[in-house]
Amino acid sequence: MLGSLNRGGMETLLLDVFKNARIAGYSFIGIHRKGGKYQSEFYDTRLMEQCSPRRGNYILSTIYQRINMRK
User: Fold this and answer.
1) Spatial contact of 3 and 34, defined as CB atoms under 8 Å apart
2) 3-class SS string, the chain
């Protein structure tokens, strides 16, 4: 879970992990609130979802949907 997708140490590290997730066989998704300079690169990995804090259970439903899509 990230606040924004701007350039920073944590975002750069996670972007590298996301880009290599399929090679390593990891199964995870990322959720963020705000966009940023890395937004398009994160979305290109197809592992990132945006969540508005006003949308209540959106995080849980997103995770549930993603898990069921992989089965």
Assistant:
1) yes
2) CECCCCCCHHHHHHHHHHHCHHHHCCCCCEEECCCCCCHHHHHHCCCEEECCHHHCCHHHHHHHHHHHHCC
The confidence score (pLDDT) of residue 12 equals 93
| CA–CA separation, 17 and 4 (whole Å) | 17
Residue 48 in tokens: 């990132």
Report pLDDT for 38: 92
Where does residue 65 fall: left (phi above 0), alpha (psi -120 to 50 degrees), or beta otherwise?
Answer: alpha
Radius of gyration for the alpha carbons in the chain, expressed in angstroms and rounded: 12
All residue ranges of the chain with pLDDT < 50 are none
